[in-house]
Design goal:
Rossmann fold; 5 strands; alpha/beta
Length: 228
């Protein structure tokens, strides 16, 4: 019998999978939240989400439609008129794959659900140091949103945002995932394709570099492995 419950934001990618594995290790009953927001690889991400949920025996799952983010646009992930650029791991600034304020939308939904089902924690796989430079992946963002939760929920509600991998590199995340027995083979990180990972976008390159630096082979299939 579980004594505590956590909402885990699970995109289907490696970072969210390892984050869920951390929550599982800490003894939480897991409730998985997934969002379709018009992203290019939404069907493949949904499959990964379901596969990971099945792996952990998750009974409470919620898939929400945030397609208004696609209608708002402004990101290569949701606007098919904007090409997903070739990955550049040394790029400065915020890339065009940033979905404006997406994580705030995700956290808002997670907070609503957590308050209803009595979850005490929200786990999100944000990564600051080894990410693409998204502003809503920084520690300060989550500290600020924690204050929003504290102010905007019932007085008796106690929900904590947990970001257990936020200061890890991708190599560290790979190692932690292997240590925890996370099903990395079930995850999907590619921004562009749903059949084979492209091996060229920022997300693929970050993932491939992480496995390489960890001295391991990525178990998912790639069209190409054009790595550094």
């Amino acid at each position: 019998m579980f004594e505590k419950k956590a909402v885990c934001l699970v995109s289907g990618g490696m970072d969210s999978c390892v984050t869920a594995a951390v929550a599982h290790r800490e003894g939480f009953e897991l409730a998985f939240l997934h969002a379709d927001y018009g992203q290019r690889t939404l069907e493949r991400e949904k499959k990964a989400f379901e596969d990971i949920a099945n792996f952990y025996g998750v009974k409470q799952k919620l898939c929400v439609n945030l397609e208004y983010l696609a209608r708002i646009g402004g990101s290569a992930l949701t606007d098919f008129d904007i090409e997903v650029p070739r990955g550049q791991l040394k790029r400065q600034g915020i890339p065009i794959t940033y979905v404006p304020f997406r994580n705030a939308n995700l956290l808002a939904v997670a907070t609503s659900w957590a308050e209803v089902i009595g979850a005490k924690s929200i786990f999100i796989g944000a990564v600051a140091e080894d990410s693409s430079g998204y502003p809503d992946c920084r520690q300060e963002f989550y500290e600020a949103f924690q204050r929003v939760i504290n102010i905007g929920t019932r007085p008796e509600t106690q929900i904590e945002i947990r970001t257990p991998i936020i200061h890890l590199t991708k190599a560290d995340i790979v190692r932690l995932g292997v240590q925890l027995g996370a099903p990395l083979n079930l995850t999907w990180s590619c921004y562009k394709r749903e059949d084979l990972a492209c091996g060229e976008c920022d997300s693929c390159l970050l993932r491939l570099r992480g496995f390489s630096q960890a001295g391991l082979t990525d178990p998912i299939p790639y069209a190409v492995k054009e790595f550094i």
